[in-house]
C-alpha cells in the first residue's frame, strides 16, 4: 500500500485549532470558541476535511491567528519562520495548502496593522517607535499590489524550502454572518476591492508554479460566526468549496449537484459604494474591524 501524502497548512485564524499548531502560535479555535462555533474537534476544520477527502495525512499546521501575508517579519506569512513551521522532525510536506490574505484585506496593509496595533504584529517591530496608535482608514491605492508582492515572496520561500511539494493557493471567500438570509460581506471595506486581492493570489501562484484552488470563482459564501470565522457548518461548506475548486483546477470537476456544495449559499455584492469607511451600514471599520455590511 502506498504511503499517504503528507499535507501541511499555511493560514491564519481560520485554519488554527487548539493543539494542532506550533507552541507559541496564536490560536482562534480554542476553549470556549470551539463550543460557540461548533468546531469542537480538529476533524471539524476545513483543512482536516480536505486532507481526509484526499486520503492524506496531516504533517504540520503552521497557521497563526491574526497573521497577514505582508509584514516586516514573523508572524507574517512572508517569513522564514512560518515556512519552516510546515515541516516536522526533518520531514518535508508533499502538499501545502495555503489559505491566507483575509487579514491583509481587513487591515488594508501592514502599515495599518502596525498603526492599529493588530494582535499579530511582527515581533521585530519596536512598538514604542511606532508612534501614537491610530485607527485604520482607507487602504493605500497600491494595497492589493503590495499584498501580491508579499504573497509572491512567500511562495518563493515555500518553493525554495520544499522544491518537490505541490502547493495549492486558495483564493479568499466571502463569509456570511450566521443566521442571515442574504449576503453580509463587505467587498470594499477600505476602498481596495476584495477581488483585487484574489487576482493577486492567482497571479502570484501562476508566477511561482503553484496550483490555484479558486474558491471565489465558485461564487458562494460560507457561514461565519461574525462573518469571518467559520462555524462548523461554514467549515463543511468551505471544505466542499476547496475540494470542488481543486478538482476544477485538475480538469476533473466534481458533480455540480453535490449537496455539500449547494449548502453554501450564492454570493451577492449588494453595495456599490467606493468604501465602507463612514458608512452607517458597516459593522466596524476600526481596529476591531468586521467584514460585514448590514445594509437592509
Automatic annotation (TrEMBL):
One of its GO terms (molecular function) is phosphatidylcholine lysophospholipase activity. SUPFAM superfamilies: SGNH hydrolase (SSF52266). InterPro entries: Ester_Hydrolysis_Enzymes, SGNH_hydro, SGNH_hydro_sf. This is GDSL family lipase. Pfam families: Lipase_GDSL_2 (PF13472). It comes from Gordonibacter pamelaeae. CDD domains: SGNH_hydrolase. Residues 10-236 form the SGNH hydrolase-type esterase domain.
Amino acid at each position: 500500500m502506498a504511503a499517504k501524502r503528507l499535507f501541511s497548512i499555511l493560514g491564519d485564524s481560520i485554519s488554527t485549532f487548539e493543539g494542532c499548531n506550533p507552541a507559541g502560535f496564536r490560536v482562534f479555535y480554542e476553549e470556549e470558541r470551539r463550543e460557540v462555533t461548533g468546531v469542537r474537534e480538529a476533524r471539524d476544520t476545513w483543512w482536516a476535511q480536505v486532507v481526509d477527502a484526499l486520503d492524506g495525512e496531516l504533517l504540520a499546521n503552521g497557521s497563526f491567528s491574526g497573521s497577514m501575508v505582508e509584514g516586516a517579519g514573523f508572524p507574517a506569512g512572508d517569513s522564514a519562520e512560518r515556512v519552516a513551521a510546515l515541516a516536522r522532525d526533518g520531514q518535508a510536506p508533499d502538499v501545502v495548502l495555503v489559505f491566507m490574505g483575509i487579514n491583509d484585506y481587513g487591515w488594508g496593509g501592514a502599515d495599518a496593522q502596525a498603526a492599529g496595533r493588530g494582535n499579530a504584529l511582527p515581533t521585530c517591530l519596536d512598538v514604542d517607535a511606532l508612534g501614537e496608535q491610530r485607527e485604520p482608514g482607507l487602504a493605500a491605492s497600491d494595497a492589493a499590489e503590495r499584498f501580491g508582492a508579499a504573497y509572491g515572496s512567500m511562495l518563493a520561500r515555500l518553493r525554495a524550502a520544499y522544491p518537490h511539494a505541490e502547493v495549492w493557493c486558495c483564493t479568499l471567500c466571502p463569509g456570511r454572518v450566521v443566521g442571515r438570509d442574504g449576503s453580509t460581506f463587505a467587498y470594499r471595506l477600505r476602498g481596495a476591492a476584495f477581488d483585487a486581492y484574489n487576482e493577486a493570489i492567482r497571479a502570484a501562484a501562476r508566477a511561482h508554479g503553484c496550483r490555484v484552488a479558486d474558491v471565489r470563482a465558485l461564487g458562494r459564501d460560507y457561514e461565519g460566526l461574525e462573518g469571518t470565522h467559520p462555524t462548523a457548518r461554514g467549515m463543511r461548506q468551505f471544505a466542499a468549496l476547496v475540494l470542488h475548486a481543486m478538482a476544477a483546477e485538475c480538469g476533473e470537476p466534481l458533480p455540480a449537484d453535490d449537496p455539500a456544495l449547494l449548502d453554501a449559499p450564492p454570493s451577492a455584492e449588494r453595495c456599490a459604494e467606493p468604501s465602507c469607511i463612514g458608512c452607517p451600514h458597516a459593522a466596524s471599520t476600526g481596529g476591531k474591524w468586521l467584514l460585514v455590511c448590514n445594509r437592509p
